Amino acid sequence: MKLIGSLSSPYVRKVRVVMAEKKLDYQFVQANPWAPDTAVSASNPLGKVPCLVMEGGEAVFDSRVIVEYLDTLSPVGKLIPSSGRERAEVKTWEALADGVLDAGVLARLEAGGFDGRSEAERSQVWIDRQFGKMHGGLKAMAQGLGEKPFCSGVHFSLSDVAVGCALGWLEFRFPQIGWRTEYPNLARLADKLALRTSFADSKPG
Question: Which residue ranges does UniProt annotate as crossing the membrane (predicted)?
Answer without folding.
Answer: none
